[in-house]
Amino acid sequence: MLAPCPHLPPPRPGLDWRTLNAFGAGDRGERFYGACLEYGQALWQRRHAARAILCLDRAMGTDLKGDEPVLSAWPMPYAAMAWLMSHTPRDVFIGNPRVHFQHYAGRMNDPRREQRRWRAWASWAIARKVMPGLPGDPRHVVDEPSLDEISARLKRHGIPGEAGLWHEALSGVRQPAGKVASPA
User: Residue 103 to residues 92, 136, 162: CA-CA distances in angstroms?
Assistant: First the structure.
């Protein structure tokens, strides 16, 4: 088991795929958000880093307004995303988060397309900073946004304070041992 991520809630014992499946297609609000974070932590601790990141991705897709009580305890998981990427042991599969978020942002559809798209670009920027050696997908041609554009779009389409949370996560990124930062 991996040490828990300090930016995610402790999981209840026995969480599995049924945890999220129980919500069905229509219930994607506060409770689903909390369940995604909790299940993400469980997956992380079981050494499923790539699947944990996908869970956080699902959490960012929830329909939240910004005043939900769960956000006071567990804000949008940008810090958790950065922490998981920077703490994944070399022998644990994480895939290529940069390509994942590049594809996700470039192919986003409704509901709340713009909100979810800019959250994906924000996560992409975190992946680029934490894991600078990961290549993008040259076959998936998209205009990669600047950090300023991501920030402006999060301010416009995100929940109140979301751009600040992303900036904090991005500025708090430290390179894991053996990784060298590349220019943004």
Answer: 22, 9, 22
